[in-house]
């Protein structure tokens, strides 16, 4: 029996309410301790290349143009034109209207194409609109869909509605992977982050994602630690691995390395791959490239050496 089938045959509310509470002091202390680990030069070089390969290079602005999206795709395919050894990013993430442009620009590259959907970033739309949004993006070429949950329904305790919407969107995705955005900055407590993580995974999410990047509080180390513990425990219980994507506010190499250390020491090597961990970012890539150039040449490349996104 699948996780989805088993939870639908029981009381979803009781299951989620019965999850162990999160020790706020403990989770913040552990996240802070992991953030102090030192990564030496050789390991740092490997970490930077891995982090580049984990980036979902993103543009989600009302002023996005086809030209901007094509330029972003070119950068994702070849982040450092002067260094053919620099790896490509994991994916380009755009609005549904820009999926046809990005699909053509990424053809044959191996870089995946992600699209936000389901009335991003608010999630405030009828289900039929969300499903049409999803199907349209997939038909236009999206490999991955980043959906937002209905936070109002979740916070009101209407877990069945949130669950059913995720199930329906997952079905509309077809072969495309589904990343479920929890918008953790609006969930108020770590307990809610844990509940939302489990709810999304039980409903069929391939990834759970922290944030839209459009609210005041986005990805943090403690929140991501709660989500990593959730995917670890979910796999132990149901035998299915789910990815994690912190998004918003991760701007420099030092922060990215902290997340990689956290993965290694919380869930292990199985998640140290773009297949199972992503950074949702726009400005992070340039700092990774500057640090990579420093390690390679001994000299910093100025911030104007790389394109601004």
TrEMBL record:
<dbReference type="InterPro" id="IPR013785">
    <property type="entry name" value="Aldolase_TIM"/>
</dbReference>
<dbReference type="GO" id="GO:0009264">
    <property type="term" value="P:deoxyribonucleotide catabolic process"/>
</dbReference>
<keyword id="KW-0704">Schiff base</keyword>
<protein>
    <recommendedName>
        <fullName>Deoxyribose-phosphate aldolase</fullName>
        <ecNumber>4.1.2.4</ecNumber>
    </recommendedName>
</protein>
<dbReference type="InterPro" id="IPR011343">
    <property type="entry name" value="DeoC"/>
</dbReference>
<keyword id="KW-0456">Lyase</keyword>
<dbReference type="GO" id="GO:0005737">
    <property type="term" value="C:cytoplasm"/>
</dbReference>
<dbReference type="GO" id="GO:0004139">
    <property type="term" value="F:deoxyribose-phosphate aldolase activity"/>
</dbReference>
<dbReference type="InterPro" id="IPR002915">
    <property type="entry name" value="DeoC/FbaB/LacD_aldolase"/>
</dbReference>
<comment type="pathway">
    <text>Carbohydrate degradation; 2-deoxy-D-ribose 1-phosphate degradation; D-glyceraldehyde 3-phosphate and acetaldehyde from 2-deoxy-alpha-D-ribose 1-phosphate: step 2/2.</text>
</comment>
<comment type="similarity">
    <text>Belongs to the DeoC/FbaB aldolase family. DeoC type 2 subfamily.</text>
</comment>
<dbReference type="Pfam" id="PF01791">
    <property type="entry name" value="DeoC"/>
</dbReference>
<dbReference type="GO" id="GO:0016052">
    <property type="term" value="P:carbohydrate catabolic process"/>
</dbReference>
């Amino acid at each position: 029996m699948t996780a989805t089938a088993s939870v639908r045959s029981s009381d979803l509310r009781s299951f989620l309410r019965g999850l162990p509470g999160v020790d706020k002091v403990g989770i913040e202390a552990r996240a802070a301790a992991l953030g102090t680990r030192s990564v030496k030069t050789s390991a740092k070089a490997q970490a930077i290349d891995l982090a580049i390969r984990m980036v979902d290079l993103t543009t989600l602005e009302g002023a996005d143009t086809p030209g901007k999206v094509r330029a972003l795709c070119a950068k994702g395919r070849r982040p450092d034109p002067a260094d053919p050894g620099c790896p490509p990013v994991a994916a380009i993430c755009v609005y549904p209207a820009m999926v046809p442009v990005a699909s053509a620009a990424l053809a044959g590259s191996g870089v995946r194409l992600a699209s936000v959907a389901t009335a991003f970033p608010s999630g405030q739309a009828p289900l039929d609109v969300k499903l049409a949004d999803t199907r349209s993006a997939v038909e236009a070429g999206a490999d991955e869909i980043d959906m937002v949950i209905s936070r109002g329904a979740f916070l009101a305790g209407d877990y069945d509605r949130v669950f059913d919407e995720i199930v329906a969107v997952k079905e509309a995705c077809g072969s495309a992977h589904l990343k479920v955005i929890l918008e953790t900055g609006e969930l108020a407590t770590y307990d809610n982050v844990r509940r939302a993580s489990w709810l999304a995974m039980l409903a069929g999410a391939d990834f759970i994602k922290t944030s839209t990047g459009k609210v005041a509080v986005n990805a943090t180390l403690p929140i991501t630690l709660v989500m990593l513990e959730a995917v670890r425990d979910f796999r132990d219980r149901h035998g299915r691995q789910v990815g994690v994507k912190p998004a918003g506010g991760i701007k420099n190499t030092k922060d990215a390395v902290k997340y990689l250390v956290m993965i290694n020491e919380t869930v292990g090597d199985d998640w140290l791959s773009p297949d199972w961990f992503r950074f949702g970012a726009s400005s992070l890539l340039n700092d990774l490239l500057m640090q990579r150039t420093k390690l390679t040449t001994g000299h910093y490349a100025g911030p104007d050496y790389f394109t601004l996104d």
